[in-house]
Each structure stands twice: as structure tokens, then as C-alpha cells.
């Protein structure tokens, strides 16, 4: 286990090639002279030597300008191209790849699969002879407005430095327009943006006009000067072997948590410092190996004495025709349920508890189900209220108590519930819909997509904040609004009107995204876990390849956080802690907050890989 230390800092041309020493020296002298000039000007009564400083500034500016013009004065879209080498080692640095080149956004046609990297029609960014990449969020483009610089990924980590603020801003605008067209298949006109997002969400397109008052109410209790990343002293951990083949992690809020692998369900004891194996395993089918069982979802129920296991019906397909109910106390599969509606077998893509804390209820017999166009609740009792008998012939049928089948393709992918049973649903088109606990028929609020499918959603216990996971970023949505009577409400209870805050994005830096490896897609974005009113989640965690990435939730909400300075478009937070493992991570989750120690404000983070399970205490704060 380790932590990541980013080397993405400022680019100094003189570190790259001796050929540029003259230019860099002039540039540095210009900056120094300008700084001296500004200091002198700001001190009352200090005018000595100003004429000489001004003369020096003019001569340096002339020298620097003429140097640029010597290359190619007619060069369109001139930039300097840099390459990052050395990865995450102490020798990591930026080197110049092309000291003066040009970029262009080129509209391409479909390549019929001849080019694996550019197999979709759309806009492509070309930089000199070194870079040709389709414009998408997979580039992990990061903007540095104060440096007139952008960093991005294309098989390596690159940076562009622009010669003027105008050229930088023009590039960012062109990039965002191309990104919109590639995502939605239409030109990035004002009319089309309204068509995609709706008038109510125009602030998502123009964050500068969005109502951020709800974000501004968040106070940041961390310090900008203390980096969250790279502090080894802030992590304690112990780990143990997981007997291989780990597929799922089911954390309990009571005495035990559970790890599911090829053999069965392994029981772990919950402690303030993490989880510890009890040496107990509930094996499938009385001990038979179930290596062919690929789990889609696990769900704890009935005061965490039962665990539901849902597996895809067909290999490579996400939907399941039923699920297994395992009684942890007896160590047996007590029921194999099947999904049925109006006498017809149906499949489910996802299942979840009725509420954030309902797994603690010993009498719980219902849970929620989802497929691409059905949102419903299942009941393990029959219509007369009696639990069905496993001894009857065939698999018992779950009773569909309430729900709705949507006629048009909603492309539901995932869902989660709040503390009071309200439901948030993520879709293939990137939309996130909110349903009140009273009705599953019509969404109270539908947040537009940003062009990427939502693979997982989570919501805080109080329903005020919604988190969506995509392959390349997390999206954090403020679900609060003020109604016409001045009352603060959530999008689960009413329509939010036109004062909807713009979301925040949680990204990896281009360097960290590249270092995460080939399997560098985000998955499993979750808030830390509380099940009581009045308590606030403290962190957000997600997995990317061998990285478990943790953000300080309070810091992300803070509008004045330094990460957001000099950003154009939606604000992105790049301040996080990385826990590095030696193999791809299956799942990362925080334990219930009751297991936070007296000396640590957050419960331990549990990280499961195919071979190991680790318990990690995070004592550092965000930067």
C-alpha cells in the first residue's frame, strides 16, 4: 500500500532543453523585473529607478516577442508541447516535446474500426505530429488558467502552454464546444444546449450564471496549505488474505461484515480499527465450489442476519432472473427467489434496500428492484403476509408490491435510497432522476446528463447531496433549493424551478489517471456511511484501477476552495488522497460511522482486492 505524490507542478521551459535557455532567461528576467516594478509601485514614496526598470521591461518584451516570431510568424494556433516523464518517481519532470508547434480541432468521419483509438465520428485534437486524440472526458483535460496551460492524457501525459491569455481561452472554448458535439451529436449552439439541458438547467452549461448560494453555505474546516495527497504518516492499515476470488464486499453496521468470493460468504468482525476475519465461511450448496457464480450485487437484510446474492442470468449480461437468500446464522441458502410480474418472468439489473438504514431492521421483508425500464419494490412474503415456503416445487416468486414499468426507454442503470426511502436513479444517457418515497411513477426532478453513462449512484442520508459515478469522473449534485415561500427543500419533494446550482466534478489529475493503469475507469463512488438524522457524511470514495481515491466532502462543497480558482466551466476538484494497492481493487467502502475512533473523526476505509482485504484509517485532512 502507498500513496500518490503528484508531479504535475509548474512547467519551467529551462528544465527541458538547452536550446530554450535564452528564451527562458528572458522570460524569467521579465517576470522578475515586472515583480520589482509592481513592488516599487505599491510602496509610497519609492520612485527611484522606475525609469530604468521600465526600460528593462521594454527591452526584454521586445526581445521575447522577436524570439517567438523567428520560428514561424504565420503559425496558426501556436503552442508549446510538453511531455511528462518519470511517472511518480523523484526524477519525474516535464520535458519539451515541440518547442513551438500548432494545434487544430479536426472533424473526422467514422473509421470502420481501422483505428481503435478513433473509431467514432467526431472532433479530434491534433497537436503537431505527436498528438491525435478524440475529444472526450477520457482525456482528463485539466486547465491551469493562471499558467495559460492545459494537461491531458493520450497514451502519455501531455501539456500545452499558450502564448497569450486570449489563445488559452480560445482553446478552452473550442475544446468544450467539441466535447459537447461529440457527446450529444449536435453543434454546441445556445439553442442546442437548451434542448439538451433545458432552461431550468442552463446553469450547468453556464456555471457563472448558476445559483451557487447553496454551495456557498458550506464551510470548509480544512486548510489549503496541508496536502491530503502523499502524506504517509496519515495512514494506518492492517490487511489479511481473502482466500482469493473476491467479488463483493458487504459492510455491516452491527457486529459483522461479509466478503463474498468463489467459495462462499466469509464473516468478518467489525472493530474500531477495521474488520478482522472470524474464520467462518458460509459455503455455497453445502460446500460445493461456485467459481462459475459471478455476483452482480449483494444486499444485507433482517438485521444483517441474511444476505441476498444476485448473479447475471447469462454470462456477459447484467440482468438476473432471481437471487439467492443466505441465512448467515444457519450457514445455508434458505431460498432461491425468482422475479415475476403478472405471471411472466422478468429480470432485474440492480437491487437495494428500501432505505439507508433498513438493513438493520430485523423484520425487513421488502427491497427495491430496477431494470432498464422498471422501478419497483419486491416483497418476500405472499399476499397474506406469510413468508413463502422453500419446500414448495420450483423457486418461490417474489411479490411485486408497488412500482412502475415505463413505456419509453429510460435506460435505468443503478439506484440508491435515502434515509426516508426516497430514490435516486442513474441512467445510460447520464440523467439522474429523483423519486419521492410516495410514488415511483413520475420523477420529481430529472437532472440532465453530461454525456457519460451513470454506472453507480449514491445519496446522503438526508437526501441533500447526490453522487453519480461515470467512467471518467464523479458528479456531485447539490439537491437543495428554496421554494417560493422561502423554505429550503430537496429535489425529492418538489420541482426545483430555475435556481438550480451547477454540479461539481471530482476528477483525477491527468498524471494520476495515467498512473492508474489500463483499467483506469472510475467505479463504486460512495459517500461515507451514516444512518442517523443530523449526522453528515465526511468523505467520498471511489475506485480507479489500483487506486482507492478519497475526497474530503466538506472541502469539495466549499466554493472558496483553492482548487476552483481560475477554472472555466463546471468546477472540478483535484484534491484527494490515493491509497495504492498492488492489484486492481474490487471495492472501497467506509465502515459505518459508529466505528469511528475517539481520536479519528472518520470510520476505517475497507479496501478489497481479489486476494486481500485491508482496513485503513485516514487521519489527514484535505488541502
From TrEMBL:
InterPro entries: CYPRO4_DUF7135, Vid27, VID27_C, WD40/YVTN_repeat-like_dom_sf, WD40_repeat_dom_sf. Transmembrane segments: none annotated. Residues 1-50 are annotated as: Disordered. GO terms for cellular component: cytoplasm; nucleus. Residues 288-565 form the Vacuolar import/degradation Vid27 C-terminal domain. Residues 14-33 have a biased composition (Acidic residues). Residues 42-198 form the DUF7135 domain. It holds the Pfam family DUF7135. PANTHER family: DEM PROTEIN (PTHR31913:SF7), VACUOLAR IMPORT AND DEGRADATION PROTEIN 27 (PTHR31913). This is Vacuolar import/degradation Vid27 C-terminal domain-containing protein.
Amino acid at each position: 500500500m502507498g500513496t500518490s505524490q503528484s508531479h504535475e507542478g509548474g512547467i519551467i521551459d529551462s528544465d527541458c532543453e538547452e536550446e530554450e535557455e535564452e528564451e527562458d532567461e528572458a522570460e524569467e528576467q521579465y517576470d522578475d523585473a515586472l515583480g520589482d516594478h509592481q513592488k516599487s509601485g505599491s510602496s509610497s514614496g519609492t520612485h527611484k529607478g522606475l525609469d530604468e526598470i521600465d526600460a528593462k521591461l521594454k527591452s526584454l518584451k521586445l526581445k521575447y516577442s522577436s524570439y517567438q516570431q523567428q520560428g514561424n510568424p504565420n503559425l496558426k494556433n501556436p503552442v508549446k508541447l510538453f511531455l511528462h516523464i518519470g511517472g511518480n518517481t523523484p526524477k519525474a519532470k516535464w520535458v519539451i516535446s515541440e518547442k513551438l508547434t500548432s494545434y487544430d480541432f479536426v472533424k473526422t468521419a467514422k473509421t470502420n474500426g481501422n483505428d481503435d483509438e478513433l473509431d467514432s465520428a467526431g472532433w479530434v485534437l491534433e497537436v503537431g505530429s505527436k498528438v491525435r486524440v478524440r475529444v472526450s472526458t477520457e482525456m482528463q483535460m485539466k486547465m491551469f488558467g493562471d499558467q495559460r496551460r492545459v494537461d491531458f492524457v493520450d497514451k502519455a501525459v501531455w501539456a500545452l502552454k499558450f502564448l497569450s491569455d486570449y489563445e488559452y481561452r480560445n482553446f478552452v472554448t473550442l475544446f468544450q464546444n467539441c466535447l459537447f458535439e461529440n457527446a450529444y451529436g449536435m453543434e454546441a449552439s445556445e439553442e442546442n444546449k437548451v434542448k439538451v439541458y433545458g432552461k431550468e438547467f442552463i446553469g450547468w452549461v453556464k456555471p457563472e450564471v448558476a445559483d451557487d448560494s447553496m454551495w456557498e453555505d458550506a464551510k470548509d474546516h480544512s486548510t489549503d496549505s496541508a496536502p491530503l495527497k502523499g502524506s504517509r504518516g496519515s495512514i494506518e492499515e492492517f490487511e489479511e488474505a481473502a482466500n482469493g476470488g473476491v467479488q463483493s464486499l458487504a459492510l455491516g453496521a452491527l457486529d459483522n461484515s461479509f466478503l463474498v468470493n468463489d467459495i462462499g460468504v466469509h464473516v468478518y468482525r467489525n472493530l474500531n480499527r477495521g474488520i478482522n476475519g472470524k474464520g467462518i465461511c458460509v459455503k455455497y450448496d453445502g460446500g460445493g465450489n461456485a467459481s462459475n457464480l459471478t455476483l452482480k450485487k449483494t444486499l444485507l437484510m433482517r438485521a444483517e442476519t441474511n444476505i441476498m446474492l444476485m448473479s447475471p442470468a447469462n454470462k456477459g449480461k447484467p440482468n438476473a432472473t432471481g437471487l439467492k437468500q443466505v441465512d448467515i446464522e444457519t450457514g445455508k441458502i434458505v431460498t432461491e427467489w425468482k422475479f415475476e410480474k403478472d405471471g411472466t418472468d422478468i429480470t432485474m439489473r440492480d437491487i437495494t434496500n428500501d432505505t439507508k438504514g433498513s438493513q438493520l431492521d430485523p423484520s425487513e421483508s421488502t427491497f427495491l428492484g430496477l431494470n432498464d425500464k422498471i422501478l419497483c419494490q419486491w416483497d418476500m412474503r405472499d399476499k397474506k403476509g406469510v413468508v413463502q415456503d422453500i419446500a414448495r416445487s420450483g423457486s418461490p416468486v417474489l411479490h411485486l408490491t408497488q412500482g412502475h414499468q415505463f413505456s419509453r426507454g429510460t435506460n435505468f442503470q443503478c439506484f440508491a435510497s435515502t434515509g426516508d426511502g426516497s430514490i435516486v436513479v442513474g441512467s445510460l444517457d447520464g440523467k439522474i432522476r429523483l423519486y419521492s418515497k410516495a410514488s415511483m411513477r413520475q420523477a420529481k426532478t430529472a437532472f440532465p446528463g453530461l454525456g457519460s453513462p451513470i454506472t453507480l449512484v449514491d445519496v446522503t442520508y438526508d437526501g441533500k447531496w447526490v453522487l453519480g459515478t461515470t467512467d471518467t469522473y464523479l458528479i456531485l449534485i447539490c439537491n437543495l433549493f428554496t421554494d417560493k415561500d422561502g423554505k429550503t427543500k430537496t429535489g425529492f419533494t418538489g420541482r426545483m424551478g430555475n435556481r438550480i446550482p451547477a454540479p461539481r466534478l471530482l476528477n483525477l489529475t491527468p498524471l494520476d489517471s495515467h498512473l492508474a493503469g489500463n483499467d483506469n475507469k472510475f467505479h463504486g463512488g460512495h459517500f461515507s456511511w451514516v444512518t442517523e438524522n443530523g449526522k453528515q457524511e465526511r468523505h467520498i470514495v471511489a475506485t480507479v484501477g489500483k487506486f482507492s481515491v478519497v475526497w474530503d466532502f466538506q472541502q469539495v462543497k466549499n466554493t472558496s476552495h483553492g482548487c476552483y480558482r481560475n477554472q472555466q466551466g463546471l468546477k472540478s476538484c483535484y484534491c484527494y488522497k490515493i491509497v495504492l494497492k498492488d492489484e486492481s481493487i474490487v471495492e472501497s467502502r467506509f465502515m459505518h460511522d459508529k466505528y469511528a475512533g475517539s481520536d479519528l473523526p472518520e470510520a476505517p476505509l475497507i479496501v478489497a482486492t481479489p486476494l486481500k482485504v485491508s482496513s485503513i484509517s485516514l487521519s489527514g485532512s484535505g488541502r
